[in-house]
Amino acid sequence: MIGTGISQFIPVLFSPLLTRIYSPSNFGDLAIFMAFSLIIGMGASGMYEYAIVLPENDEDAQNIIKLISVLSLSISLLTGIVFYIVSWFIELDFFYFLLPFSIFFTVCYNVISYWYNRMKKYKTLNLIRIFQSVLIIGGSFIFCNIKNGLIYGYVLGGLFCFIIYVFNFFKHLRQINFQKIKSLAFEYKKFPTLILPSSLMNTVSSYAPVFFIKRFYTSAQLGSFSMSNRVLTAPISVISTAIGQVYFKNLSDYYNEKKYDLIKKTFLQSTYVLCIISVFIFLPLFFFGEDLAIIVFGKAWKEAGEFIEIIALASMMKFIVSPLSTILIVKKELNKVARWQTIYFFTSMTIFIIGCFFSIKTLLWIYVIHETILYAIYYYIMKSVINKN
């Protein structure tokens, strides 16, 4: 958990330097590149990486990795062919041709994460995550004289994961038993058929602002949004998640011991703690985000500061509600989670389709209202599940 926190904070810590080297447009290009890499990478693996930790013997786990390798290489190659054909008709920036590599590198990172979790090599995994973040930042500085240096830095971090992937699995990948991996693909078919659709909806919903801002506004505005999002999601990724993991463990123990009164008490106490912490993090950003952005990132990032002030309230809501949602897993109310995710996906798409006809600030205010309402409903669902019992 410490390694994950450090790796997520490294990009934020070096942002004040990078924002003085790269323009908002450069960060906008990075945002759209990362969105494509992560979303297509999720589909390319079929979410089979979740199954790596499940088999009793390592041989089956390695065969699942072979299955993932075949799927992801095929999708990456297909993506490259599609972009090559599109380039005949539309002039594409060179970085789009790096996308097939980045997609496969994304899958490699996910496979490594689940494999090392299976092997309980947590320290090694933390070191890999930290070193990858350092490489991404280092690459961004090394390629600073190139237009898309941020993207080259990001791909360099992915290349490191690919090298670790080859080092661990190449000797096993030389012999592929297609009958065996076909059998495992069928055995764990719930991952691509049940988990993948909802996970894709979740991820696409998260990146919806990136795609719509890229399509209807400017790359500079996308870069400003990306930077504001980077600042606001850091507390959610580290502090909120850390609290959520402790909370989840306590809830699981209480549920197994049938201490239902303690479940409700823990839920309310966690809500209170998250609310208090969020006030000290997000209210200063709501009132002084623009001034802080100019001081920390430079005058070119004034718009990012304005976006931080707008989005801070929505981020505050996510900070409070997201870690509490594990109560629905403990109570085995996954159908409620699926329904909420479906509603969230379609309402997100709707508000961006409507909102893109307005100014970007109006769109972001609509987005904030949507996030606040949907996460308030999510919290109400959790509370009703607790009160029901």
Automatic annotation (TrEMBL):
<feature type="transmembrane region" description="Helical">
    <location>
        <begin position="124"/>
        <end position="143"/>
    </location>
</feature>
<protein>
    <submittedName>
        <fullName>Oligosaccharide flippase family protein</fullName>
    </submittedName>
</protein>
<dbReference type="InterPro" id="IPR050833">
    <property type="entry name" value="Poly_Biosynth_Transport"/>
</dbReference>
<keyword id="KW-0472">Membrane</keyword>
<keyword id="KW-1003">Cell membrane</keyword>
<feature type="transmembrane region" description="Helical">
    <location>
        <begin position="191"/>
        <end position="212"/>
    </location>
</feature>
<feature type="transmembrane region" description="Helical">
    <location>
        <begin position="30"/>
        <end position="52"/>
    </location>
</feature>
<feature type="transmembrane region" description="Helical">
    <location>
        <begin position="272"/>
        <end position="298"/>
    </location>
</feature>
<feature type="transmembrane region" description="Helical">
    <location>
        <begin position="149"/>
        <end position="170"/>
    </location>
</feature>
<dbReference type="Pfam" id="PF13440">
    <property type="entry name" value="Polysacc_synt_3"/>
</dbReference>
<feature type="transmembrane region" description="Helical">
    <location>
        <begin position="232"/>
        <end position="251"/>
    </location>
</feature>
<keyword id="KW-0812">Transmembrane</keyword>
<keyword id="KW-1133">Transmembrane helix</keyword>
<feature type="transmembrane region" description="Helical">
    <location>
        <begin position="366"/>
        <end position="382"/>
    </location>
</feature>
<feature type="transmembrane region" description="Helical">
    <location>
        <begin position="310"/>
        <end position="330"/>
    </location>
</feature>
<dbReference type="GO" id="GO:0005886">
    <property type="term" value="C:plasma membrane"/>
</dbReference>
<feature type="transmembrane region" description="Helical">
    <location>
        <begin position="64"/>
        <end position="88"/>
    </location>
</feature>
<feature type="transmembrane region" description="Helical">
    <location>
        <begin position="94"/>
        <end position="112"/>
    </location>
</feature>
<feature type="transmembrane region" description="Helical">
    <location>
        <begin position="342"/>
        <end position="360"/>
    </location>
</feature>
